[in-house]
């Protein structure tokens, strides 16, 4: 796979790169999948490419060439958690499970390496922008949660909180992760407290971002009132998908079991 620097050089030299056509070629001509390395996160069509890849994978859930290509694309753009999720789909659907578990391990290592490189640079005294550091921490934390890697979850969540992190996205994900660990340890009261904190204080100015409902899903059967309060807290700041939020609220109000995603 080409390096990010090489991808950037390619797109700078070819500003009219047709990402959609490249995707079409990759989807229908698997032998051309190496061209996936030519798409980078900074390209104007990146958001459209993200949507098209997701739709393509959903439309053909057992087309493993498309799944593999999509996984490579999201690794290339450093969206390690979604690449890992795609590899997990492959592991559950493809008879060649080993192929995908190997891919999962490689993706987790890449995410950890990206975070480690920031740690090394910081130790050298280089100024590290807070945004990339947060993204790298959250990527490792997300995959660690998917793998149930307790050490990875604890390390990333505690690093965020120990650094005095105050950004809403960091606080939300760190407390969801720590609540998950508390629940695994049978510390239900602590897990519920983390869930409440993950909803974020009403006084906090929170930009919209996608919340993590995994802890809420685990608690809803036994702590419905607390999960309802969490959903209402999230509703203050999660504005990008109101229909999904309305469905959760409706299920909780009707006494049904919501299927959080």
Structural class: mainly alpha
Helix proportion of residues, in percent?
A: 55-70%
Compute the number of helices. 13
Total E-strand runs = 0
- Gross morphology is globular
Low-confidence stretches: 1-19, 29-42
What is the CA-atom radius of gyration, in angstroms? 20 Å
Distance between the termini: 31 Å
Q: Mean of the pLDDT scores?
A: 80
Output the helix-strand order: HHHHHHHHHHHHH
Main sheet?
none
Strand content: under 5%
Q: Can you tell me the number of structural domains?
A: 1
Summarize the structure.
The protein is mainly alpha-helical and 261 residues long.
Give a structural overview:
The chain is an all-alpha fold and 261 residues long. The chain has one domain. The protein has helices at residues 4-13, 19-28, 46-59, 64-76, 80-93, 97-123, 130-147, 150-162, 168-184, 188-198, 214-219, 224-235, 242-254. Helix 2 runs parallel beside helix 3, helix 6 runs antiparallel to helix 7 and helix 9 packs antiparallel against helix 10. The radius of gyration is 20 Å and the shape is globular. The relative contact order is 0.06.
Describe the protein's topology:
Elements: H1 4-13, H2 19-28, H3 46-59, H4 64-76, H5 80-93, H6 97-123, H7 130-147, H8 150-162, H9 168-184, H10 188-198, H11 214-219, H12 224-235, H13 242-254
Helix pairs in contact: 2-3, 3-4, 4-5, 5-6, 5-7, 6-7, 7-8, 7-9, 8-9, 9-10, 10-12, 12-13
């Amino acid at each position: 796979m080409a390096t990010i620097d090489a991808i950037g050089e390619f797109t700078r030299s070819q500003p009219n790169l047709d990402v959609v056509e490249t995707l079409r070629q990759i989807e229908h001509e698997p032998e051309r999948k190496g061209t996936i390395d030519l798409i980078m996160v900074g390209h104007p069509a990146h958001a459209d490419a993200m949507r098209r890849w997701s739709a393509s994978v959903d439309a053909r859930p057992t087309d493993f060439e498309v799944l593999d290509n999509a996984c490579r694309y999201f690794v290339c753009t450093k969206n390690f958690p979604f690449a890992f999720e795609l590899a997990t789909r492959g592991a559950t659907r493809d008879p060649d499970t080993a192929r995908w578990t190997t891919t999962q391990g490689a993706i987790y290592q890449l995410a950890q390496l990206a975070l480690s490189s920031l740690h090394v640079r910081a130790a050298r005294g280089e100024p590290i922008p807070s945004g990339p550091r947060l993204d790298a921490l959250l990527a490792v934390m997300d995959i660690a949660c998917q793998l149930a890697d307790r050490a990875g979850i604890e390390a990333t969540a505690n690093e965020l909180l120990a650094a005095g992190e105050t950004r809403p996205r960091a606080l939300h994900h760190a407390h969801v992760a720590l609540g998950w660990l508390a629940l695994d340890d049978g510390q239900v009261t602590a897990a519920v407290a983390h869930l409440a904190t993950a909803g974020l204080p009403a006084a906090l100015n929170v930009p919209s971002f996608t919340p993590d409902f995994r802890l809420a899903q685990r608690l809803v059967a036994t702590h419905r009132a607390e999960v309802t309060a969490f959903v209402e807290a999230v509703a203050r700041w999660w504005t990008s998908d109101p229909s999904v939020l309305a469905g959760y609220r409706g299920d909780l109000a009707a006494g049904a079991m919501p299927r959080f995603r």
